[in-house]
Amino acid sequence: MTLLKPPPVGLAMRTLLRADATVLLRNRQALLLSIVLPVAMLFITGAGSGRRQVLDPGYLIGLAITYGLMASGLFGYPMAVARDRESGVFQRMRVTPVPMWTVSVSRIVVQLVLSLIMSLVVLGLGGVRHHLTFGLSNWLLVLVISLLGAAVFLAIGQAIVGLTTTSGQVNAFSRVLFALLLVVGLVGSSGLLGTTFKTIAGWTPVGGLSNLFSAATGSVAWGSDQVIGLVASVGYAVVFGFIGVQWFRWTVR
Question: What pTM was computed for the model?
Fold first, then answer.
């Protein structure tokens, strides 16, 4: 019996990256959620020109970027993984000499690149929309926080697909969670429901990341809200990432 020799990891990764990028570019729904949605959110939430705004422009830009990261992490990534698992893609790949970890890494890398592109687009349009000028440090900080935010929502998405068995369940959980985080981000962080609820919102993925983006754009000074956002974001990424890896199943049983 002749055993297949595993291909070089570099070759396997390049092949998987090209394949995953091609699939993503052909997925109009994923691109709509990841890029069009945050741009729309940017202009909707910033529609108060000429009137007193409840939230500062930097926070609104960060909120739009956060929703783009959330849409990609809660819908695009877990749904693609769940559908491939249901159709037996992973089961067939397990009998190939390609290491399975490269499959996950490739998909995550593609999602991270998409997140960075979305962040640059939203930050640029946000600067034009709110008449802001950003320095190099602002751009770099936004990119770093975008990577952290993408890790948070990809970890949550991985946990969802790890704790469920069908794409229908993934879709249901993602919709409910997205709606809850949407309300918390828009209403809770505005302070309209009081200081206590605003403080709680700062510990959520949306509120914490939005506070970080607000400081990264230079709209507010770095302070306790940003420390809370950083601690909470790292915590979410680690905890949900562990859950997603620990309970993930390559096949539907």
Answer: 0.88
